[in-house]
Amino acid sequence: MSELVNLTINGNKYTAEKGSMVLKVAREHGIRIPTLCDHEAIEPFGACRLCIVEVTRGNRTRIVTSCLYPVEEGLVVQTDSPRIVRNRKMLLDLLLARCSDNKVIKELAAEYGLEKPSFREEYWEKHDCIVCGLCVRACEQVVGVSAISLVNRGVSKEPKPPFLEKAKACIGCGSCHYVCPTGAVTMEEKNGVRSLPRWKVSFKLKKCPKCGIEWAPEAQLEYIRKKWKLEPGFFDLCPNCR
Amino acid sequence: MASKLKNAKALAALHKKLAKDIDTEKCHISLCNGTACRPYGSNPVAEAFKADIEKRGLADKVEFKITGCHGFCERGPIAIVEPGNVFYQRITVADVPEILDNTIQKKGPIERLLFKQDAATKTVARQNDIPFYTEQQRIVLGNNIRIDPTSIEDYIAIGGYSALSRALVELQPDQIIKMIKDSGLRGRGGGGFPTGAKWETCREAHGDIKYVIVNADEGDPGAYANEGLLTGNPHSVLEGLVIGAYAIGSHQGYIYVRNEYPLALKNITLAIEQAEKLGLIGKNILGSGFDFNVRVNRGGGAFVCGESTALMASLEGKTGEPRAKYIHTVEKGLWDRPSCLNNVETWANIPLIVNNGAEWFSKIGAAGNSGTKIFSLTGKVNNTGLVEVPMGIKLKGIIFDIGGGIRGGKKFKAVQTGGPSGGCLPEKLLDSPVDFDSLLKAGSMMGSGGMIVMDEDNCMVDTARYFLTFLEEESCGKCVPCREGVKRMRQILTDITQGKGEMSDLELLTELSAHLKDSALCALGSSAPNPVLTTIQYFKDEYEAHIEDKKCPAGICKALIKFSIIDEKCPGCGRCVKTCPTQAITFMGKKNPVILDQSKCIKCRTCYDICKMGAVSIE
Questions:
Q1: Neighboring chain A residues of B478 at a CB cutoff of 8 Å
Q2: pTM to 2 decimals?
Q3: CATH number of A4-80
Q4: Most CB contacts within 10 A, which of A70, B334, B464, B570?
């Protein structure tokens, strides 16, 4: 059993495993902290900054990202102090100016009282991607194929397939699509083909000979079969018919 | 070169021999071949010296040395001649035979090559009498003049590696750490974190493998202090690094040098090879049983890699992006192992402290800010160059006493310290002391030692816009506040310089600034607002002029200015007609004023700059 520590979040006392992250501890106790670049299956990154909280240790108070800040004995956390709310609102203001047409961002911004960006209209952009890197990190850490990566620096940074060509290593698993918080990684399935236009790839879906359902990309099944050293034909039937 | 030194005694003996070999009967000429003197033509001058000495068989009379940066870049190429401590400036190939003649025949200094602040003042022959040097305290940079940076013998001759020898033989690691703590040395990379405390945490951190790292990724526009030191005296940095490694318990070091510093890379790589050959790096250094290896890594050109975690990511072969430092790099740094990263200048201070003691060091500079700091003094100041001053010196002292005041008799407007994300400080703060804490309080920072002086011709709104543009380009793009916030700030500033600003923009800029300081991931983002905040704080009138009157008082922002010819002053010489790139100026015959066609004028300023009569006005 690892060491337990006492901490305070928004005035309430909690016990948590030493070294676990503030965000995780808060969520376990039903305290909501908004996030965009966080996912339980993926290492925290600290890019979207929405999960910022105020932490006090001794007589020093500062703003940290809760996804990356480990709890320790006596830590005092404020998740919604006026300073935090002000900063979160500005973050959403900046994101809204970047993604002025995006549903998720608009809803989140509205929660903080923002109907439209505070910036001049000519600055507004219509991206869907907020460059949180979840798609890239899922592909690398969860799927293990690293078919895509973040390219360029600064304002022109974005997730892209290698050399901006078709993502050759992609297996069409769609993890990037599922983890994307803003719907920027789209995925379509039509006529037995799954396509991920952002990575310029499409995959033939495997059809179950028994029930006729098109249940997963052949490339993905082949990747899993090889990785787990399963016999050929293992994935011939869909999970329901197996 | 001498063979491997088996112990401290062997090093001491080598030092004694090399020091004795310095022939004081000979004349010594030390030519600066630093980063500024080279483009001024130092290389051909060096060749000319070598050729002439050989041709005339003067080798037994003259000791000629090509060295790293002497500091007074404004006057390059420069050389120091001993005996006499004569300072020659702006030397050309044609001057070489005369310098040699005068030196050997002891005819006294050559008047035309001596320093003179301006037409009204007298020439000064001795380097030690030139105000640029007298007001400095060059404990770290001073040795540049005395050594050929490609010669380890030169370094050992002046006592090099004696501090390492002392550390390994006489001192225990904790004694060294206590010494560094007592000295009060703070990180010269900008943060000003106490070096001794950093070393102590790293020594105490869990882990068998620990790393020491030299940060030589100096990317500030206009700053070259680290370059001057690493190129001019690479062994001093290396010696400090080995001492630090011994104190911390590290056996592997990395030197991260930006690839845009080819000479620094060459010299430090050579220095490592030489030190390895002499057994000052490698296994069982000086018979102490301590092993240490070091390798040089080249930076890929990103400003953000000067940030410690981004630098370590880059060393690991990953994208140079910072990460949160809630768990410090001294505990989990490079490859998640305890890592102690210090700036070039910090490392170079270590041998001095070990040799002279903590008390000696703590007496230099000011309380809480001991030692000296090297600055790259650039901009609209008369004497540009690398200056090393005791901390606590007033800004005025650097700009006016050392820097010789503002170029062309213009009026001082602002000084920016600490690189692109430093603040711009106005005239009323010229009496502030230059130390970590005072600069921070004034809204700027020490940074790694950039100091850019601006005069009445600089527009402060445009200056803020310029630096934010730089920071926008150099932002890694990982976190939202920096990637999106700096971009918006740059857009707003650009609008203001184009006459499209509103007074409410200032509020928005201030809000964005506070947000970046609070929420950005690394220091690039959290310090990016400094140029904006300080210019709003100290030069608000300029913002108001741009926004309310749609005027640029300094005459810089093109959208807000108009060039015109003052007919009474124009003699019709036609110089501006020839240089105007858009044929906007028409020649009307001698003695008749030229005519400027506003529709063709692109406001490039060439007519204004070329007119000797002051007949071009900017409104």
A1: 45-47, 133, 157
A2: 0.93
A3: 3.10.20.740
A4: B464
